[in-house]
Design goal:
The complex is a heterodimer. Chain A is of the alpha+beta class. Helix content of chain A is 39%, strand content 23%. Chain A has a six-stranded antiparallel beta barrel with strand order 1-2-5-4-3-12. Chain A has a six-stranded antiparallel beta sheet with strand order 8-7-6-9-10-11, with no helix packed on it. Classes of the chains: A alpha+beta, B mainly alpha. At the A-B interface, helix 1, helix 2, helix 3 and strand 1 of A face helix 1, helix 3, helix 4, helix 6 and helix 7 of B.
């Protein structure tokens, strides 16, 4: 019985031409591949430019696959949200009513401040900030992992996306475009260990550099030791570095139980299927990010 | 009749040889879909490892080392920061599992699953070591690593069940053809 079975498999061995008896050739290949993998690892750790370019070219090819695969997944997730939403409908409605009242008060205040701002700008002859152009993009793949935080979006060069554009959700900044393909682009999230965002505390006006740690804790670099930032205070972009305009909400201050100070992002892409890609007309500082 | 049988054999062999790479690519694509499983963590678990482990034990003949290397490399280019890391790890794990396949096939499902858990831990350890050595990232991502391990271990029986179905179907058509 065993002999018969062995004979059966040997036919397929020949047809597939991948017989395990080809040990010598395979050993050479294994050596080559392992050597190549190690060389690539070192090369990619030394220079990220070629990695980003290749990744974007590949994402142009794979984005239609991801776009198709995401449809049934999104349908299931949306159905889940619908069900949980129905359960909390009454509570959510009451919360929204309250929020709406608060927002109407804020709207009046914002309009008053906007008029005051315009008047002051006219008095001081201050050049207004360039008008931002917004574009909506869909998140097609979550290409990050434990050791990198990136997103692939379904808008690329053909849609006018360029390196340095900000990636935002209504709550604030989540990342920045670092590479663009023809039909897709890659955003580096503020949580990534390579991300740096110059910010300023909104009320106390202390400048600090936010650095990603691959977690939701953003570390505070170059913070003046004497600076007294309030807990919960918002950190907004300072506009230094020339890439982002001042005033975009990024994070808020948190103090851990061990008295450790860090910032937590205000916005999180996990709450959104779509993001806004924003052109502030300031792409000169991409290398600063 | 003989000619028809040869054609059927060729068709079967083609299907069998494409099945493993395609299944691994699908697993890899699933890995990178933006599926939230908690508010702040994403499902970026090494699910293709389950496929590699399965094919290495049950049908190594349909999975060539070139394919394993290319799947790992694609994985790196899609989502990794260190290019070549998954190519190296997938290849090493495939070779290890293939070398141990006689022993593993003699074990029960739980023992094979437990061996996979050890491989998974080694995978996470080596990934962290590579990033720490080459990128200087010292903080140990304990929580994401635990979540990743739990998700991958939970996905294991389901993936193995589906792959077993495919494998049995292949075996059945082989017994008809030969």
């Amino acid at each position: 019985m065993n002999n018969r079975r062995r004979r059966k498999f040997s036919v397929f061995d020949r047809i597939l031409a991948v017989s395990l008896s080809q040990r010598v050739g395979e050993r050479v290949l294994i050596g080559l591949y392992i050597g190549l993998a190690l060389v690539l690892m070192v090369a990619s750790s030394l220079s990220k430019n070629w990695v980003h370019v290749t990744q974007t070219q590949l994402s142009d090819i794979t984005s239609p696959i991801f776009s198709t695969l995401i449809l049934p997944v999104r349908a299931v997730i949306d159905r889940g949200y619908e069900v949980s939403g129905l359960q909390n409908l009454a509570t959510e409605n009451a919360e929204l009513r309250l929020q709406n009242q608060e927002l109407l008060q804020w709207k009046d205040r914002a309009l008053a401040l906007m008029n005051e701002n315009k008047a002051l700008q006219a008095l001081t002859r201050l050049d207004p900030l360039p008008r931002a152009n917004y574009m909506t993009a869909r998140i097609i793949s979550d290409t990050g992992g434990m050791y990198s935080k990136t997103l692939t979006l379904d808008k690329g060069k053909e849609d006018g996306v360029k390196q340095g554009f900000a990636v935002m959700v209504p709550e604030g900044l989540i990342g920045i475009i670092i590479e663009t393909g023809d039909v897709s682009s890659r955003a580096l999230l503020i949580q990534d260990v390579n991300a740096r965002v110059p910010v300023v505390s909104e009320d106390t006006r202390h400048a600090v550099m936010l650095a990603g740690t691959n977690t939701d804790k953003l570390s505070l670099k170059y913070l003046d030791e004497t600076a007294e930032i309030k807990m919960g205070e918002r950190l907004v972009t300072s506009g230094r570095g020339g890439l982002l305009v001042p005033g975009i909400p990024v994070a808020h201050m948190v103090q851990s139980s061990k008295d450790e100070l860090y910032a937590k992002p205000l916005a999180h892409y996990k709450r959104a299927d779509y993001v806004q890609v924003v052109d502030f007309g300031r792409q000169s500082g991409i290398e600063e990010f | 009749m003989r000619r028809l049988k040869s054609l059927q054999l060729l068709y079967h062999a083609t299907v069998a040889s494409f099945l493993a790479p395609v299944s691994l690519f699908v697993l890899m694509a699933i890995t990178y879909l933006p599926i939230p499983y908690t508010q702040y963590h994403t499902l970026v678990s090494p699910i293709p490892l389950v496929g590699i482990y399965f094919w290495a034990i049950y049908r190594p003949i349909v999975l060539q080392i070139t394919v394993v290397f290319l799947i790992g490399l694609t994985n790196d280019f899609i989502g990794g920061a260190l290019i070549g890391l998954h190519a190296f790890l997938y290849l090493t794990i495939f070779l290890f599992a293939r070398a141990q396949r006689r022993f593993l096939r003699g074990q029960g499902f739980s023992a094979i699953w437990a061996c996979f858990a050890i491989i998974l831990l080694a995978y996470h350890g080596m990934t962290w070591l590579a990033y720490t050595t080459l990128e200087g990232q010292l903080p140990f991502p304990a929580l994401p690593m635990i979540l990743n391990t739990v998700v991958t271990m939970a996905a294991y029986p389901l993936i193995i069940y589906l792959f077993m179905k495919i494998d049995r179907r292949l075996q059945r058509s082989e017994s008809f053809l030969v």
